[in-house]
Amino acid sequence: MKKRALFIMLAMAGIHSPLLAKDSPQDSCKNAAALYADGDLDGALEEAKWCVTLLEQMKQDNIAKFFKDNILGYKGNELESQNAMGFSSTKREYQKEDKQVSVALSGMATSNGMDAFAALAQIGLTAGGGKKVRIQKRTAAIMVDNNNVQILVTLKKGGTLVFESNDLDADELQKFAEAFPIEELDDSRG
Predict the structure, then answer these.
(1) Domain stops at, among 35, 61, 87
(2) Which tens digit of pLDDT belongs to each residue from 18-54?
């Protein structure tokens, strides 16, 4: 009996293993609709949540490809992505010798046009916070506080891209931001 229970547990773990499962959002969404049509609301809801999870993962993968491994000789560390309560964040640290740059994209997980982050960035830009510049046809603000330099770029498709460093001056950080594929990233988001 114990062997049978162990076999069933291992088989179920294999079914749900991300390494073995090749779920697609299309299949999950179709399954959710079929479960709903059969009257299985709990099953349909669970499958619909999985469909959304897979779609969000695809969107994160699309964004991640713009956080290149190497920008102006700065090598990218591990990419960090988070998605919670409708907000998404993608961050990567870049390092060259003893200098470090942090790049973070944050905004609504399902953005259409201006979102809360972009609106807040616009308020900061119009309230006189920092020097206004244009980077790849996007409005940006450069803010310097002692050794900390930040460049906030307001994206057209919603969200804010933040470049930050304690090691680079404003001109160096702006050159890094100008080398980052901001326009391509923004345009890819729908």
Answers:
(1) 61
(2) 333 467 888 888 988 999 999 999 999 999 888 888 8
pLDDT digits (tens, 9 = 90+) for 113-150: 344 444 454 444 444 568 999 999 999 999 999 999 99
Whole-model pTM?
A: 0.69
Average the pLDDT over 146-175 and give the result. 94
Taking the CA atoms of residue 95, residue 156, residue 116 and residue 57 in that order, the dihedral angle to the nearest 10 degrees is -60
The answer on 56 and 81 residing in a single domain is: no
What contacts 24+ positions apart, CB below 8 Å, involve 139-144?
140/177, 142/170, 142/173, 142/174, 144/170
Q: What total number of domains does the chain contain?
A: 2
Say how far apart CA 111 and CA 154 lie, in whole Å.
13
| Domain housing 125 | 68-188
Output the CA torsion 28→33→35→41 (10° steps): 110
Which CATH number do you get for residue 139?
3.40.1000
In terms of domains, do 56 and 81 share one?
no
Q: Give the separation between CA 89 and CA 158, rounded to whole angstroms.
A: 13
